[in-house]
Amino acid sequence: MKINNNFxxxxxxxxxxxxxxxxxEFQAVNPGVKVYRLGIGDVTLPLAPAVIEAMHKAxxxxxxxxxxxxxxxxxxxxxxxxxxxxxYATKDVKVSSDEVFISDGAKSDxxxxxxxxxxxxxxxxxxxxxxxxxxxxxxxxxxxxxxKGNQANGFKPMPDENYKADIIYICSPNNPTGSVYTRxxxxxxxxxxxxxxxxxxxxxxxxxxxxxxxxxxxxxxIEGARTCAIEFCSFSKTAGFTGTxxxxxxxxxxxxxxxxxxxKLWNRRQCTKFNGVPYIIQKGAEAVFSKEGQKQIRANxxxxxxxxxxxxxxxxxxxxxxxxxxxxxxxxLQCPKGMTSWEYFDHLLTKANVVGTPGAGFGEMGExxxxxxxxxxxxxxxEAVKRILENS
Length: 392
Fold this sequence. Notes:
The chain is an alpha/beta fold. Helices cover 39% and strands 15% of the residues. It has 12 helices and 15 strands. The strands form 4 sheets. The protein has a 7-stranded mixed sheet, sandwiched between helices. The chain has a 4-stranded antiparallel sheet with strand order 11-12-15-14. The protein has a two-stranded parallel ribbon with strand order 1-13.
């Protein structure tokens, strides 16, 4: 018996576990000192009332023989898949219910989708980037190249016509940088992928934070995307499902590689390896798309966007270079005084008692930068911003 040696190529410590360890060590020698957390992008507001009501009703249904639900379809219940189809229609995007697959979160499907893609594929991943994109491909032994983000391109790398890629990762609004691709920029990526006969893995987990009608919230809004892109989305940040776990993946039927529809392959994979999301959770997710549910989650998103605005404007006034904070819950700032990202982390923790996320944890191009999130409560955000400005 042999192990998958690719796992040995992973970094020993995951970014957020390292942060947690540093905080624990700080608090051990500074008992009673309050730490203001703008680091991990977990939500702080409770689930919307419409969601809770739907889940309570679903729990009651599970206690009655006539409405009890056992195994559900691996692809997701029709009521939720159809609600998502209707949601895409509000974006002027037409998808069919059998192109929508319900999951327990975008992170799972972003990793699991690699099951249906050959290990020899060359992968192009932006840098800096959400670590899971890199780690899941390292686990599979794939060759990874990076598209470098920097201040010059606004941390929005564009395609290089001289480079051949098979799988391309795009996240917009981006985690960690908060940058958002325009329609023209996404069209360039779509045209590149179709020309290269490549597949775009598009992460739209933060689409609900885009407030500018001119900016796309789905790659499927771009002409030509249905022949080159799979879209992954999550209820985690959109509706606060970080502790409830639900998401969805859209696999267009026009995606055909090696004369095989990826929709068919993904369906086969899910039927074998996934038992579906619990009925109670899916009923809560369906309520997100109700008229009242949309009103309530939009209010929550507006709360986080106000936090982002507070951070953004404070950094603007201080003259600290940054991206994000307008159509994104993330703010990506340049570390002051030439500090490395981990030096700035330690500085803020010890001097200001504020926690953010070091840019180096997101890739080589993240060194010298720092991520803040808008998912804290208002009091924490205001105090943290004050402390950051006093110590930057």
